[in-house]
Every structure is written in structure tokens, then in C-alpha cells.
Fold these 2 entries.
Entry 1:
Amino acid sequence: IVRVTEQPDPRDSPIPFSVENSDDPDATKGKVTVLTAGVNGVLTETFLQTLHDGVVATEVKTGEQVTAAPVTEVRKTGTKVVVAPVKPAATAPAGTDAATAQAIARDMVHARGWDDSQFSCLVNLWNRESGWRWNAGNKSSGAYGIPQALPGSKMASAGADWRTNPATQITWGLGYITGRYGTPCGAWSSFQAKGWY
């Protein structure tokens, strides 16, 4: 003898919510603002199970019903392109005109054991290159600073303030001249022959 019974078996499954997105011209590009959070719905399916001695033998789906409707997520996505502000031009420490820069250079030239003739060659060289301006830039080549380093970032080896500090630029420039030409007069001779050093 087999005892046969029946019982309903409801089962819930999620209904994914949809997303509505619109552009927001007042928000930064890519920024997403959720106006209404999405919520999954619930679909309830009902099955009728037949049990033989308490064990499910068969089941038949008898119906389904949306017991909770999904809530659509409403979003706005920014489209405004923000242009980074232009950094103000770097400023040098006070008193860094050409005369001051040359005074700094004279001390450095003497510290290397060179005489005033070498300093004169250096003055001629950097007068032609930059006019002894710490912020002199060559738009076509990208050379920068009093010694017209190419690229200017090379001078970072002499100090992090290479963009604005004449002393840092001069230190790098004298090192470059020493390594390549030996002396400022050697560099000046090369400049006169080629138009660059």
C-alpha cells in the first residue's frame, strides 16, 4: 500500500530591474548619480507535487504570478567636460634678473678654478642662448632656462627647482659645459662655429 498525497510548492525567483539613464550636462563627465535605486522584482511560481509515502514522485507547474514588481533604477550620467585650469607661470625668487644670475655664475666659475676670461666666455654664450633669463623657452626646440637645456627637465639632476631657480640652472649648465667642452671658452668657440653648443 502506497500513501499518495499532494501539496503546493511555491518558489520565488528574482526579476532583474531595468535601468534608465539620461545625460546630465551639469555634472562632470562620467559621474553617475542614482536618482532612484533599482530593486529586483519577485516572480512566484507554484508547483503541485505528488508524494508517495512522503517522497515527491511528480510535480506539475500550476501557475505563476509577479508578487513584487521590479523598480526601475533611474540614473543620470554627467557629460560636462572639465578643463583643468592653466597653472600660473612659475615665478623665480626675488632678485633673479640677468645681473643677479651673472653674479651667481661668476662665483660658481671661480669656485671651479676658472678665471674671469672663462666667465666672459660664459656671459657671451648665455647672452646669445637666453639673455640670462631663467624662464627663457625655445618654442621650436623645447630648450629651457639660462643654459637652454634640451629638454629642460635634464636640469632636474641639479635640483627639483630647475624650472625657476637660476642657481640650479647655472649649476647644471656649468656641469654640462665641463663634461662636453672642458671650459666655457671651449663651449663659446663651438657656438661661434656652429651656432649652438
Entry 2:
Amino acid sequence: MSLHGQSYGRREGLVSEGGGLAVSTGALTGRSANDKFTVRDATTENTVWQDNNKAMPWANFDIPKQNFLAHSRLKNLFEQDILGGADPAYALPIRMICEFAWHALFIQHLLIVPKNRDGFSPMLTVISR
């Protein structure tokens, strides 16, 4: 079943008159800087925009990871491999893990679903819940 159909079947949204999926993001919308974490190390120090991010050392990364794993233990997650960027020379292979089908569908419209996943090796994992 498509992500569109799964979103509807899971009651995450409604099918609009034109056939698109309409969802309500709720009262708390937008990017919450307090919920975004970036591991700051020698690799990310000068390559990741650090403004408005909560930086943490690798030693502390296990805390939000364990919280996510505990929260998602009984959930059906949507995992997909996608590309950030159209130019093969610069495209970033990303593993996206979403709690909601509509999040997984939305990211497919922002990034690129690769035609061939042979040898796909994610350089970044993004968790959306």
C-alpha cells in the first residue's frame, strides 16, 4: 500500500477533493530548536550549521537515542533511503526513519527517492517523530 493510502488508513489525514492528502500538524507546529540535536565533533564542527541546534558530544548521544527507541518500541516505523541533492557528485545518501506515514510521504517530495539502491550506504540518519 502506498504511503498516501497508509496515511489515510492510519487516520493521519484526509483525502482532499483533488486527491491529495490533507493533514493537521496540531497546535505545536514549526521547527523546535529544543528538539533538534547535532553531535558536535571534529567532523561536524565546521561542516554543519550549528546555530539554533543543541550540540552534544558523542558520549551524550545515547540518551535521546534510547528515548526514541523506548518510544518507538511498539510503533510501526517508516524507514527509507533517500538522496539530498540531485547532482550525483554531491548527493547525500540519507536514511530517514519516520513515526508517521505522512512524514515519510512528505520527505519524498522534499528529497529524491533513488532509482537504484544498489550499494546505497547512508551517510546521515534522520529520525522524525
